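Quick look at the format.
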Amino acid sequence: MDTTYRIDDTPLDDPGRRWFLERDNPFQTTPAVRSASVSVPARDGIVPQHNEHYGSGLLALRVIVTDHDRFGTPRGWSQVEENLQHLIGVTSDRTRLLTIHRTRGGKQHFNRGRVTNSLNPEFLDQRSTRLVLLLQLPDPLCRENTWATLATPTLSSNELWSSASTTLGGGNAPIRDAVIYAQGAMSRLYAEDVQSGQWIDLRTTSASGQGLRIDVLEMRAWRTTGDPLDPDSTDEVTGSLDAGPGGFSFVPHYSSSQSRSVVSLRLRRTGSGGVIRVRARRAWLL
């Protein structure tokens, strides 16, 4: 199974073969659960905790740096030095997180990270050296490049709509970047993940021609006018947003009758009838 990586706009399999990935295992380590053990006197074992989050991830990439120039012409050791400095410069930006794009098995995912360990190039011969990039992933979940949008049918006021969604399903990690929005006169916008029991609730008003939007990742909310996803036509109403303990996410789950995961959710709007939409990117542990 071929796996390729790109850091920002720089492919780690350079078209001119200035550098290329050294391949063996196409998989990385899955993130560890960041769990807390709670023990209670006069009770065996520990009290299990649910809806736990994951610790940061680690990604190691081994790159062979060659003496080719960008046109694929061998130039000798001085070109190895130049290519090495170029690659170190690309991956050592300390002003922001790097975007790490991965293509594996025809599927494209991305993550963000930074090189944290010192880089120790290993001399191989006069035409090549090995560079190991060790990247820390503050958020260890791999996300899809494209957004999926789930839309409910037209709901009446206070109608609780339930679905086992295949649109949001397909991944195996919690979806933490959902955007939940609806248009029309409302006094409440509510979402619940059935699998985890987590919920998020926005109680504020919007008039006809307006709408409400919840950004789950940022834990912020807005009253919108016109395009519900336009950041320039909103008034922030985050003070009216509430969520259960541990925040909120949509958690995909499997059953023996399904070939892929689904997301079971409940949605509600109070006020005028209308549609609720959920925009999100599926996520994976590996």
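Next, a different chain entirely:
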Amino acid sequence: MMYKYPADGIQNYISEPNQPLLKHLQAEVQDWDPNQYITPEVEQFCIECLVKGGFQPRELMDFSHSNNEHKLAYLYLRDEMLKFLQGGGTLPRVKLPLGGRKWIQERQQERQAQAWEEQEQQERLLQLEQERLLQEDVEQERDYFERMEQ
């Protein structure tokens, strides 16, 4: 709470972030999943090990500070994974978030290309509509002149 309510005599440097800048930065990384720290294959491996070890499913496990079940599960899982890897097994790793600037530029280019494609599609639709209207006008004029000739 000190960071929100500094003691008397301490200057409070709290300030609101620049909202347009914050939104811009958030948009740059909107496709990144900060919660993915293991691959689905590793998660499945862990689930299978815990089931084999007789542990409850994660949803039923008691993570309270006074219960050691989750600590025992961690130690068991650590040992099983070490045995698996030392025995020649392999598990895929999550790519480290390196090259962030390049990744951001690639996503921006993808979004720009998508926007250009959408714009081109809108222009094609508009052109088709204009051609249809022109054709309709031509047909109306032809009908008009045909009636005039009769």
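The chain has two domains: 33-96, 109-150.

See the schema section for token definitions.
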